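Project standup — Tuesday

K.O.: blocked on the structure for the chain from last sprint. Re-posting the sequence here as requested.
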Amino acid sequence: MNFTSDNTSGVAPRIMQAMMAANDGHVPSYGADPLSAAVQAQLRILLDAPQAQVFLVSTGTAANALSCAALTDSEGMIFTHRHAHIVEDEKDAPLFYTRNAELVLLDGADNKFTAAALKTAITYTKHVCQLDALRGMVSLTNVTEAGALYSPDEVAAIADVAHQAGLYVHMDGARFANAVSALNCTPGQLISGVDVLSFGGTKNGCLAVEAIVFLTPELAEGFADLMKRGGHVTSKMRYLAAQMMAYLDSGLWLRLAGQANRMAKRLSDGILAAGGSVAHPVQANEVFATLPRSAHDKLHAAGARYYYWPDDPSRTGPADEQILARLVCSWATTSAEVDRFLAQLS
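H.V.: unblocked you, prediction finished:
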């Protein structure tokens, strides 16, 4: 009963098999192999972006930090939610790669900000800094760190405000598959107005691969050099490409995400039925559940693993003390695993 993170699950069998198949023989290195070219072609079709430029890296932090560096620099600003992954979980990597761009932090329920909130922040920033125009970017995370979704209309509205202000738009899509699956939309509908997408794979059944997709292709000029300077050019790129090709093949990426989302819904429904509560709407594969200390103790004794949120509580306290925890389902989470968890709440 491991609900600590979707990073703790293994690799989906078809993806591991694809890596083994790619292990045969010799092929050109540094992305000049046929699989890497095929990945770009496949993502262009999937995202309905025929001119997109695609670059593969092995971590989500690299994808986000390098994307930010492509869109702004030390004289620019990054407008994003104050609890975005690039703010709280990447140890200032985006600031390191942009040479200390300024963060402008926005608020909003469920770690989302609205187009209206962005417009207000832009107006205020221009006034306070006495600027006629801004340089920089907007970054939104879909799925958010609270498990919430931006709809296609919300993304398009934010992008419209950003572009009117001369700002580029980046989407952190570490859980992009979960968002597309949950919203039942096409991938292209969810990236309207987005300039650069971090297209995640690692959290959803891959070993270690993320795609940086330049939907505005001219922004990719010089990006290969940026990747090289940043130490993120993989010599044996075929292994990253093999993962991504298997991930995209026959809609595997959506089936894996759909399983994670369904298990989160099953888990949430059971927690609510048992008298618990959730702190955020359960829209994808994360559940933020509040349970009494006694229930947590029983769950941990039975072998359940998950994180208290945002921090560990004191070691002792009243049995009825309400404590928040984050539970994350993955492609590998089974209904039996969820039901064993819920049985401890009965």
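K.O.: great, moving the ticket to review. The domain at 13-252 is CATH 3.40.640.10 (Aspartate Aminotransferase; domain 2). The two ends are 16 Å apart (CA to CA).
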